[in-house]
Design goal:
With about 180 residues, the chain is of the alpha/beta class. The protein has one domain: Leucine Aminopeptidase, subunit E, domain 1 (3-Layer(aba) Sandwich). About 40% of the residues lie in helices and about 15% in strands. Strand 3 and strand 4 form a beta hairpin. The protein is globular and about 45 Å long. It starts with a strand and ends in a 6-residue tail after the last helix. The relative contact order is 0.20. The structure holds ligand AR6. The site of ligand AR6 has 25 residues, from helix 1.
Amino acid sequence: MKRFDVIVGDITQSDAQAIVNAANETLLGGGGVDGAIHRAAGPELLEECRAIGGCPTGEARLTTGCRLRAKYIIHTVGPVWHGGQQGEPALLASAYRSCLELAAAHGITTVDFPSISTGVFGYPVMQAATVAERAILAFLEDHPEMHQVRMVCHREETARIYRQMYNFWFAATKADRLDVEHKG
Ligand code: AR6
């Protein structure tokens, strides 16, 4: 099993212990992957989210998976893209890191992410992929207990860019450690 992987699919069908939702600060649902997750998880999810009372950009909150296969949903809020000079990369990195820290704190060892901020929020995929992968790979290096983190892209084109950025920036240095069977 690769500790980091990029796959094409519908994250609502994920068999990971936790999936990540690209939500907004209200946590009360929306379009895109957020809408798909709420539809698949059922109305109980909205009740759980209501009780949490929102989430600032760059942070993360945990709910159960309700009717999903995944046991947990980690809701995070990525930044809206305003051209890149308003702290977007730091906020996006923080969103990924917060999700993984929350997962680790709950003993979750497999996490699937959608491509946060690159839909409605308009973050260019190439830049988002670089930020996402840097944050994920740094976390995996420091947390051997995390078995697997995957990017689950809805479209082949998005997955292609995540793979390309991985190969461009990270494969040479990380391959030895990440493209191997997990021994734990
Ligand atoms: N599985 C995996 N990825 C998906 C799925 C799915 N079922 N459906 C869409 N995507 P977006 P954002 C991809 O817009 O940019 C919502 O209204 C999609 O192709 O869902 O962070 C929230 O409530 C894209 O690559 O999230 C917020 O208001 C990626 O998910 C706002 O949108 C993210 O696109 C958040 O915007």
